[in-house]
Recover the amino acids of this structure.
């Protein structure tokens, strides 16, 4: 079987922190209602970033088509940054070292 080559070359993975408006149907007292946006961070393949906003995709097919789009208007964005390249490979040595360091420093429970 021939393994398809994914069209990732040149695609960047980005993170975007943004404030989202929301709607809630729960019954609450006036004093219980949060009067502020909810802060989210979205990650994805960068398709476009300009003065209008940012568009990220979660999926890319072997033919180069995208799906799972997330458009965030510029006025809702607090910050965006490049995470890395989609076609970067993680070296096995680095992965082994990272696993070892997580074993050496166990998380504290109940602190």
């Amino acid at each position: 079987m021939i393994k398809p080559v994914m069209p990732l070359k040149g695609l960047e993975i980005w993170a975007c922190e943004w404030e989202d408006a929301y709607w809630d149907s729960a019954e609450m007292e006036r004093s219980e209602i949060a009067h502020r946006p909810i802060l989210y961070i979205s990650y994805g393949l960068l398709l476009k970033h300009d003065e209008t906003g940012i568009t990220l995709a979660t999926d890319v097919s072997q033919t180069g088509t995208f799906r799972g789009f997330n458009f965030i208007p510029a006025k809702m964005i607090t910050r965006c940054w490049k995470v890395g390249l989609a076609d970067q490979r993680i070296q096995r040595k680095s992965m082994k070292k990272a696993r070892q360091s997580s074993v050496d420093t166990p998380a504290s429970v109940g602190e």
